[in-house]
Amino acid sequence: MGTLWRDATARRSAHDRGGWPAARGAQLSAGRNPHANLGLGGLVMGAGKYDASGRYFRAAVREKADFWQAHYNLALSLTYQHKYAEAEAAYRDVLRIVPAHTATLQNLGGVLVGLGDYTGAAECFRRVRACYDEMS
To answer: What long-range pairs does 30-35 form, CB within 8 A, spacing at least 24?
Structure first.
């Protein structure tokens, strides 16, 4: 485990103590690295800064359009903010890339319930069940 691991561990320890800069609203920059943006977005989201985390996830998606993990985390941050229409679009982006991602289907179903689309939600939940039935 190299320097990056030690640095990440030190930052995480500082975050756990409430001293991590993003927890206090400091601006961090990952540049044009989609994986760094995904990681920073996750740390910021863990600090409850959902709007700020969305900026990192959007940056990751801009740099790598098929980065389903960035789309998924963007959808989560939007869901936490109750921005259900935007979250629906982000979850559908994930499903465009990974059609049978069960966590996405489950979360999309919940978002559709929030939007009042009970038929669409039921279809998502049926697809989740079908995915698990195929694995049995």
So the answer is: 30/56, 30/59, 32/63, 33/63, 34/59, 34/60, 34/61, 34/63, 34/64, 34/67, 34/70, 35/60
